[in-house]
């Protein structure tokens, strides 16, 4: 049985590091213009899993680097992820009233402020990357992260997601959406940590393959939980994917095949890390946890 207690302590430590740094680098809530800074902080400090910052920090440490060197990038990834959630929840997108167990940004404030808060988080993320990444890799990493978050990555997946609602289930389209909307940024998070650690190309490639596999597994499990979970467990409205006619793995392949595919991807992710030996133990535990999670 995987030692998830140990992993959860590690994730908590990463989360605390990221939260302290995010609190430091973000404008104060009462700093003018006050509404936008309140909304940014409301969305960012709403109790998220902090998976992407943890992957940056753990990817760096696994490859022999120091967490402190990767902390600015870890915070930037959480800002990018949070901006995407704020925009995802808007009425024109997924139209969600709850996120992480409380009203979404546009419900707590209004649509205009929510749009601007997302814009501000994304912009601030790249400012933080520009100032916080090692000079030796800053330009190339910023380009990679922008690509993972842009139309060839997350935004491209989101476009396919919203434009394919209520169309017949399409297996190839589901995988296209998942690899871009979710897996691209998760892959880039752990890859960024490895590059900051100045890891050799074979190790960067190993953690990149790992990130690709767990990113796809994470979204498949998300799809499964939307069917099997409750609103209370998820902190957001359960059953929304089916109600909106979303392209999901269970809709295309069925629940049993979805569980099986998530397990296969986790096994492949752990196999990709074998060249890193015992240093990759925590990343392997995280892969198991992604498949087993219930929220």
The residue fraction in helices comes out at: over 70%
Structural class by sheet pairing and helices: mainly alpha
The shape, in one word, is: globular
Q: State mean pLDDT (0 to 100 scale).
A: 95
Number of helices: 15
Q: How is the main sheet built?
A: 2 strands, antiparallel
Provide the succession of SSEs.
HHHHEEHHHHHHHHHHH
Number of strands: 2
Broad CATH class:
Mainly Alpha
Task: Kindly give the count of domains.
Answer: 1
**Strands of the biggest beta sheet: in what spatial order?**
1-2
Instruction: Give the second-level CATH assignment, the architecture.
Output: Orthogonal Bundle
CATH superfamily: Farnesyl Diphosphate Synthase
**Looking at CATH, which topology would you report?**
Farnesyl Diphosphate Synthase
What would you say this structure looks like, in words?
This protein is mainly alpha-helical and 295 residues long. The protein has a single domain, classed as Farnesyl Diphosphate Synthase. The chain contains 15 helices and two strands. The protein has helices spanning 4-25, 34-44, 51-62, 67-88, 105-108, 111-132, 138-149, 154-163, 171-196, 201-228, 231-234, 240-244, 249-253, 255-272, 281-292, and strands at 98-99, 102-103. The protein has a two-stranded antiparallel sheet with strand order 1-2. A hairpin with a 2-residue loop joins strand 1 (98-99) and strand 2. Helix 1 (4-25) packs across helix 4 (67-88). The mean pLDDT is 95.
Q: What is this entry, summarized?
A:
With 295 residues, this protein is an all-alpha fold. It has a single domain (4-292), classed as Farnesyl Diphosphate Synthase, CATH 1.10.600.10. The protein has 15 helices and 2 strands.
